[in-house]
Amino acid sequence: MPRHRCTVYSESDYDDDDDNITMRCLSCEDDYDPDDAGTCKECYDEANETEEELKRQIQDLKSKVSFLTLSSPLDAPSTTDLVLLPSTDAFSPSIPAHKAVLVSRSPVFRAMLENDMEESRSGTIKIADVSYDALRAFVNYLYTAEAFLDNQMACNLLVLAEKYQVKHLKAYCEKYLISKLNWEKAIVNFAFAHQHNANQLQDAALAVIMENMDNLTKNEDYTELVDSNPRLVVEIYEAYLSKQVNTAATLI
Amino acid sequence: MPRHRCTVYSESDYDDDDDNITMRCLSCEDDYDPDDAGTCKECYDEANETEEELKRQIQDLKSKVSFLTLSSPLDAPSTTDLVLLPSTDAFSPSIPAHKAVLVSRSPVFRAMLENDMEESRSGTIKIADVSYDALRAFVNYLYTAEAFLDNQMACNLLVLAEKYQVKHLKAYCEKYLISKLNWEKAIVNFAFAHQHNANQLQDAALAVIMENMDNLTKNEDYTELVDSNPRLVVEIYEAYLSKQVNTAATLI
Questions:
Q1: Label partner for A142 (CA 20 to 30 A): which of A97, A239, B9, B148?
Q2: A170-176: which pairs have CB atoms within 8 A and are 24 or more residues apart?
Q3: Looking at beta carbons, which residues of chain B come within 8 Å of A58?
Q4: How many CB atoms lie within 10 A of CB B206?
Q5: Set of chain A residues whose Cβ sits within 8 Å of the Cβ of B125
Q6: Co-location of B32 and B91 in the same domain
Q7: Domain end: B179, B206, B231, which one?
Q8: Residue B33 contacts A, CB cutoff 8 Å
Q9: What's the pLDDT tens digit per position in A164-210?
């Protein structure tokens, strides 16, 4: 076989014809032009090893999560030592739980149960402004770090997470609500996030609002917000103004 | 600048001189020969995204592990509802714990505590053949999925993990012991692993023994094992024979 005129190449790793030189990618096994080159072989091997190592770490962590997850107290209430009671529904059943778990997950429950407060003595914690379903999902999350969310449940759990300072659950709900954000929901989410100190959600909602300033005053939620919390509407305009000033500065 | 005679190359991604063509790796930014090419640019970008995604997953899982980890009952014994007692030391203090945690981590504790057995009624579980330090580390692991191991502690915890069927801890100890395996320890570990159904450790120890068959009969632990458990010594020879037969078969 006649050798190509660029004799530094070996034939094994790339193909050539008269007009074109291509190499074969070790990952997708397609041919590519030298213009589209990515890495050298050493870095390719290293990246592969890194990926394998990261996957091993994920496997180990998943197994640790599974080990540390507790059974829901609703499935096995025999060893529970207190109950939670949703105050909105006088006829709803109470939800059994363990002091040890509540104390471990929430500094608010810790303060409540480790000091000699009414809740600690009576073994009953009344939770205001919450439905049975939301409270049940909240308690379940404290044991399993899992919850089935829709928009309403994410809002309900975020409120409870903020009230009882369960940071992990709050971040979980914010992440869900951010993933579902759009212009329809942006103003309501912005106001909700502000009310419950959900900074990440508030920033994300504000970013969506900034992209839709042309339609702002036509939005019904906007009109309501002007009535209910004009100070918050000012925050939107301040952010808009600041963005415009910055954009102008970069154009000079 | 005169263009190289292989005109299909653009100059941006590779350098050339009269005798040699090199490209620049996007990862290490070193030059390389086409012979040492790894991936195309598309696969390089994809691999980068995958790595980022895996790292995000690891971050999420670590935060979940941290959320699910319970405080050790030794740090906050106020809500505990039973004690564990190491039977080897009559004067050692008892170790407080929560039925709910023990039940959740071990099917043996579950059976013991969910049925109306002596331990459940008295709130005291006596643990045979264990030191205070090992039992304390065992209980701690049930809450935190963490333990500080040396060879002795790994063996002690493996025995407890097998007895109380705490699979996660057993795997953790096996992994540690395998990482410390060498010819000095291989026979002792092989016998120990066999006694406590630690299959992975047993296989790993057997592999080390297979590599040192020349020295087998000179090893003191071997002599002891022939006395104490000749059936297990037969297993070593059977594995050796089987390996030899297989090797011979591949050579034909």
A1: B148
A2: A170/A198, A171/A200, A171/B63, A172/A141, A172/A147, A173/A149, A173/A198, A174/A198, A174/A200, A174/A201, A175/A200, A176/A149
A3: 54, 57-58, 61
A4: 20
A5: none
A6: no
A7: B179
A8: yes
A9: 999 999 999 999 999 999 999 999 999 999 999 999 999 999 999 99
B237 by Cβ neighbours in 10 Å (0-12 / 13-18 / 19+) ranks as exposed
Q: Quick check: helix, strand or coil at residue B245?
A: helix
Q: A65 and B62 in contact by Cβ < 8 A?
A: no
pLDDT tens track for A69-123: 998 888 777 788 899 999 876 788 899 999 999 999 999 999 988 887 777 778 8
Interface check for A43 against chain B (CB to CB < 8 A): the answer is yes
The token pair at B47 is: 């691999």
**Domain end among A148, A180, A212:** A180
The residues in A 122-151 lying below 8 A from B, measured between CB atoms, are 145
| Residue B80 touches partner A, C-beta closer than 8 Å | yes
A31 is a domain residue: yes
Q: Identify the domain containing residue B173 by its residue range.
A: 72-179
In the prediction, which pLDDT does B1 show? 37
Work out the minimum CA distance from B126 to partner chain A, whole angstroms.
20
Query: Sign of torsion, CA B236 B237 B239 B243?
Result: positive
Q: Is the pLDDT of residue B204 over 50?
A: yes
Task: Determine contact: B102 vs chain A, CB below 8 A.
Answer: no
Domains identified in chain A, total number: 3
A167 lies in some domain = yes
pLDDT band at A3 (very low <50, low <70, confident <90, very high): very low
Radius of gyration of chain A (CA): 28
Does A152 reside within a domain? yes
Q: What is the per-residue pLDDT for A193?
A: 97
CA atoms lying within 13 Å on the CB side of residue A88: 8
Same domain for B76 and B174, yes or no, is yes
- Tokens 């009882």 correspond to A164
Assess B165–A contact: CB distance below 8 Å, yes or no.
Answer: no
pLDDT band at B32 (very low <50, low <70, confident <90, very high): confident
Complex ipTM, two decimals?
A: 0.82
B45: β partners: none
